[in-house]
Design goal:
Length: 670
Amino acid sequence: MVEHITESPPKIAFLGPGCSIAAAPVAETLPFWNVTQISFSLTSPDLSNKKKYPNIYRINPSETIHDPALLALTNFFKWERLFIIKHELRIFSSITESLHALLVEKKKSVDVIGFLNNPTSAIKSLKDKDARIVVLLMYENQARKIVCSAYQNGFYGSHIVWILRGWYSKKWWTVNDTQCTIEEIKKVITNVFYVDHVDYASDDAEVFGLTKSRFNEKYTELIRKKNSTIFKVNKYAPYGYDAVVMLARALNSTEESLRRMNKSLSDFTYARSDIAEVIKDNISNTDNIKGLTGVIKLDEQGDRIINVWLQQLQDYEVVDVALYCTENGSIELMPSKNFLWTDGRVPLDRRAKNDILLCISRPIFWWTTSASICGVFASFYFLWINIKQGSQRFFKMSTPPLNNLMIIGAIIAYIYVPLHGIKSCTMEVTVLNSILCKVDAFFISIAFSLVFGAIFMKTWRIYKIFTNVKLSKQLRFLTNKHLVVLVILLVIFDSIYLLIWNTVHPLQDRIEEVLVENHHAVNKVYFAHACTSPYYHQWFVGLVSYKGILMLFGMFLTWETRNVSFPGLNDSKYIGMCVYNIFIVTMVVLPVGMFTFKANVDAGYSITATSIIFCTTATLVLMFYTKIHLEKKTATTPTHPTMSVDKSVIGPTIARNAIGPSPTWKHCYP
Ligand SMILES: NCCCC(=O)O
């Protein structure tokens, strides 16, 4: 620029330069010499700033002309989630600003990722965010880097769409300046769109002696004769032609205007701002003249108004598939052209979501329900035996009232199993399910208190009998009535706890996301019904803690009385087995079932239901079947209660109390 300015004759106007990063400083400086500048290829939105660049006029449109066209393209395919990758140059930052503002105004989700030299982190970020629709704002050499990095990082496929600027050279991916081969790059650019302002008029009218087809022939011929590694067909060539035409016309009309003022263009010096103003006026007024690129219309910023092509790369050839009409915002589809997609479908802007509700399968539900029904019948049978045989020695010694409570607990536990699995399996929360949630919690909690509470009380009494010196005083509080009352107190405590829980933070049915499977084009999201409440975990831990403490204490008592062997306390061994059984099921199997439920509803429910049925049945069998068996056996061969205690194991205290049936024995086993 300085060379041109300093060399004679004085320059009235500049044509170019070709790239915004070179043109911006020129455009900022030329006004000091009163020189006008015409652009045929500068697209930076910054150059529309008339305060900063008062002397530049663009025969070509600004990049912002593509924004509404790109918006229309995304609307056409219902893409709402977009990613912009920009090269950190001023031109692309300003393009990004205007595009981002428009997309956000239209409620699109837009994520902008910038890069300077190494595109790897940008690509990794796209991959992490599962980007699908990616707009590239960069020169083509950087686009090749991006695409190569996408290949190297496996970020490509039929689900990804790239939207590029149409001013890249025709086969821009064939330039070998990356670490990828052309074939590798071609694997990435399977779904590519260009937004590209129109470069030729629709008709073949003559402009200054040349039609567009003749111009194109001459231009391509010229390029062909040149060194093909340097000279490539540039889409701005007809704009260059039109720029010269427009400038020539403007200078002609300027001369006319100046003549009326008794001035001439030949009077121009760098100090003649008056002449510069007339030139600028005449450029601004060259509206609606016909050029090779169509009718030339400039907006108030001196930028060209023109339609935009929406093009698609089909079989690695650019195809005009639709025309965006800038003035009315409509899209005109090209009748003979279709959008083509590598897998035959329009890619989605995000993984499709396929919601699947997991339900307990019918066979599993019916199997467990059948087992529970059998359990209920067995429980009633044991209840009947317990009541009927209550006066028989072995039943009587095992505390029939506690046994009754235990059987009632077992029945409730059995009923819990189908109740837990019967919840309606629809994609909506129902009132019935919420009621079942609450009932479930009451059932399992009360069942536990009745079954384990009864067993615990028995163990406790055995422990007291064999470890307490002042047995007579203590046993007054270990009568059947007292123990039954204690079990009922546990049930009351449970009920109060659950009532408060459900009043303060009611348990509700909810549909929870339990698993997400990421497939290429679709996200399978699995849901299941779950009972939950605010502060669920805190409430749950509270309930389980007190039951856990009771259970640990029960374990301790069972361990302490493990060597007691006395036919009068014939079920102590079985009580111990029940306690271990309940402990393992409650502490290990049930939590496994709860956690498995999240990954596999059927497996989770099966584990939970089976463990409850097994644990309850084992308890009933151990506590009652053995007694029935013993009762039958002793009915045929009468035996006399004897007591044997392994003194070395149970220690002196137990041994001392275990010398013989105490007079207070009757208090305990009336
Ligand atoms: N329109 C292609 C060149 C971009 C620019 O530097 O203005």
